[in-house]
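Changelog-adjacent note: as of this version, every example in the card shows the full chain rather than a window. The one below runs 288 residues end to end.
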Amino acid sequence: MGFYLDKYSAYIKSEKDLSDNTMESYLSDIKQYINFLKSKAIKDIRNSSNAALVSYMLSLEKEGAASSTIHRKLSSIRSYYKYLLWNQLISKDPTANLVPPKNQRKIPEALTFDEATRLLNQPNGNDAKSIRDKAMLELLYATGIRVSELISLNLEDINRQHAYLQCIGQASRERIIPIPDSALQHLENYLHKARETLIRKSLDEKALFVNTHGKRMTRQGFWKIIKYYKETAEIDKDVTPQTLRHSFAVHLVEEGADIRSVQEILGHSDISTTQVYSQLYSEMKKNL
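Full-length structure tokens:
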């Protein structure tokens, strides 16, 4: 009886090779769907139906959710129902033969070079937090790594002598990415002047970037940092950690980088994902 969320949560944590962030995303999608079912007086997953699922998808569209978001949520729900069916907790799978909305590749938003410079110049204090924020922003923009990769970096992943970082991206693919001199300088400044102050007594902390409690920086924590500096820089765009990654890619294309090289640096498995940045650069040129 019920929704068996605890059982499913235990299953994906023990059986699926997923990162913590991916697991949180999966469970968040399922919880949102369950809350929708409860709002429709469906208190047992066995009473859910194809009609209820379609109604949920339509509600997401009405709320303005992108087709890519709906696809992702539907994928999470499919996995959930497959688990329930496999374990004979339900007798039928409502996601069978369900057709999601057409998934259109959305052109991401990026900062102009001037906007990126203004954002990076915001943390200019000599306190530990400002020095850390400056190093994080500079490293993210200079390497184009994902925010999940940034906050997952450990001290051992940075080779300061040869100026490169080592990160594990999607599908556990390892990448070696050079660190430009400017970003390396701010990283060195953080390691020499700020990190020890922030970690306090947590001397065994392996994380490269830590919060004010001396623990690994979280995605939510870094999101707040970006939002704060976006406001102080007076940038009239929706700026997220991913925006800096997009900006890095567009500026590489602008400087004449080969699209295959950009694909390798970003860690894209499909070059069509990378080619979006050429299109975005063209769109930005039209608006100059």
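Structural remarks: The first strand starts at residue 158 and ends at 159.
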